[in-house]
Amino acid sequence: MVSMTKHDERLTRVQQGLWYLTNNEDARKVLRAMIKKMKKVEGSFERIKKWRQEVKFYIPDDPKHDENYWIAAYIIYTNMEKFKDMFDELDNIKQELGKLEDELNELRHKEEKLEERIENLRDELPSLRRNKEDKVVENLLREIDNCEKDLEDVEVTYGEKLRRLSRLEGKRYHHLLPEIIKLAKQLVAS
Length: 190
Prior knowledge:
Blueprint: H1 2-23, H2 25-40, H3 45-56, H4 67-78, H5 80-131, H6 134-189
């Protein structure tokens, strides 16, 4: 009974790993590249056949993906020590991108509020100049000036965060993902 429990735990762990790889957007890009390579590499037909036999045990009854996705995911899963750090970095980048997008949305909202406040204050200014003391007009001009400075700060911060987002996306799509794909293709071809 103990061996059956260990077998079930292993099965669950493998299935979870394969599920992650077949449902992760970035991993699916790697899997598609591997599948193309698998179709091109005739010399490794026996190995692919062996992997196909091994993975059949782990494919769910109602698979969402073609069997080749499961084979490619299995190849990565069984070589995860080579990929773990890269996939972790991809996940970290994805999380940071999500936070940056949230921060950018907050900054856009703050920018809109400041622009609206400045516009309202400027609309108020002509009527005050005719009817009120210089002190009130002076305070209003100072508030407009403070709002404009805050708006400039928000715009600078927005630009910095946007550049950071762009760098992270570049690292993800132009460096890290191609590196993972190259390593994955090597596993199929070797």
